[in-house]
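Message: I would love a firmer grasp of how sequence relates to backbone shape in proteins. Thank you; the sequence and its tokens follow:
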Amino acid sequence: MKNMLLILVSIISLGGCTSVQLAPSNLDIEAKRFAAAADKSVVYVVQTGGLGSYRVFLQVMLNGQFVASLSGHTYSRLILNPGKYRMLVSSPENQESIDFESKAGEVIYLGAKSKPGFTQMRVVPIQRLSTQEGQNAVLKSSMAALMDF
């Protein structure tokens, strides 16, 4: 009986995990050099964890256009024209957004976390991270596969 209970708990635990498709390792290595682009801005959006972060996909939209799916400790690197943007991150239960303006040559780090909600996982407010916080979060994460946008 004890073995049957252990097997059941293991199956339930494995069934609750989700993951996104990861980018090739050479792109992950290149992104972790944190190079700025002279005439563009670079934005890293990082799923920085939180309780249950591996149990949910966070869908990332930029100015209304889908750009990435993130799960626990993954990130996406976006190269953008300088300008004003609204990033929306959604989970099965809610969504959060942040407005930001980017400048040429600037590197911006945005962090999103998840936590248990009423019925499913939810995203907490998106935070703008310092350079050190952002780079540390990216270094501990894997790059999610790039989306065409």
Residues 1-17 have pLDDT under 50 and may be disordered. The longest helix spans residues 2-15. DSSP finds three helices and eleven strands in the chain.
